[in-house]
Amino acid sequence: MKKIGFILSISVFILILTGCNGTVTKDLRHAGYNLSQTKLTCSDLIPKNEKEEAPKQISYMNGDMAITTDGEIYEMTFDKAYSNDENCRKASTDIIVTATMDNKILKGDDGELYYAVGSNETEAYRQVTSEDNSYELYKMLLTSDEVVKVISDGENTYYILLKDGNVYKFIIQKPDRDQPYSVMSKVIVYSEEKYGKIIDFNIDMNNNEKTYIKTKNKIYRMQASNEKKCSKYADVECNYEMKPDKVVNKYYKDKIVYYGPDIIITNYGKIFN
Fold first, then answer.
1. What is the mean pLDDT of the chain?
2. Helices H, strands E: what count in the chain?
3. For 165-173, what is the mean pLDDT?
4. Average pLDDT of 60-86?
5. What pLDDT score does 120 carry?
């Protein structure tokens, strides 16, 4: 009888956990996030169980690359697993990342710049040199130790998260072809004073709903204030404003391992796009 009681207790406990995770999944889907069929496995970044934290926390993702809070790089795959039978693997590089730009440039703790992804002309993790036509610009944008993340918008506009927790809009130009780049203007677009200290952000001019700011306690995302009308009528434009994402914030601290412009990863391995 004791054995049967123990088995029943374990079964009830599993059902409770499953039901809780089921509610998270349902709420995120109802909020418009699409559930991926992939069940993410990554022993370093996903906790073994919900009472524990993962050994390492994701600070931000750079395409198919996860960068931890201590600057380590993990490569991610969301279809087939790697040969370690997991969807992540530690990158074969000693680079410790302190800042990123446009998902393609990394700044290491050694002050050097590296390519985040490979191409026909470069190898991933190879050092950027003056042979790159944009080297001077990269150096100007990423030299300061205060820079955390840079997103470019057009030819001369750059949004930059600094360690003070503010996101700035910089206009950077060359006054003359033979002169160095100069900061023409600098304004705060998302402030620590209004939102709290910002630790990550994204700005996407082609998709407002991918624009967000993240603090330790909340996610704010561009959302249409007139969603019902603008989603119904072809001649009504959506009016976007930065607002807390109520559903995501409900689970942000307890269930969500990472929130980014294209992906949400939960602590039970489910992925939402």
1. 89
2. 5, 19
3. 96
4. 93
5. 62
CA–chain centroid gap for 131, Å, is 30
Tens digits of per-residue pLDDT, 201-258? 999 988 888 999 999 999 999 999 998 899 899 999 999 999 999 999 999 999 999 9
Contact 71, 62 (CB under 8 A): no
CA distance 89 to 73: 9
Confirm if 73 and 91 have CB atoms less than 8 A apart: yes
SS3 state at 81: coil
Strand order in the sheet with 105-108: 113-115, 105-108, 97-101, 147-153, 157-162, 167-173, 182-190
Q: Is 190 helix (H, G, I), strand (E, B) or coil?
A: strand
pLDDT digits (tens, 9 = 90+) for 229-243: 998 999 999 999 999
85-93, Cβ contacts within 8 angstroms, sequence gap of 24 or more: 85/41, 86/41, 86/42, 86/43, 87/38, 87/40, 87/41, 87/42, 88/42, 88/44, 88/45, 90/44, 91/65, 91/125, 92/125, 93/125
Half-sphere exposure in the Cβ direction for 236 (13 Å, CA): 13
Provide the phi-psi class of 184: left if phi over 0, else alpha when psi is between -120 and 50, else beta.
alpha
Q: Which residue has the tokens 């069929």?
A: 37
| Structure token digits, residue 161 | 């998260």
Q: How many other C-beta atoms lie within 10 A of the C-beta of residue 95?
A: 20
Percent of the chain whose predicted confidence (pLDDT) is above 70: 92
Q: Could you give the CA distance from residue 191 to residue 227 in angstroms, rounded to a whole number?
A: 26
pLDDT, residue 176, reads 81
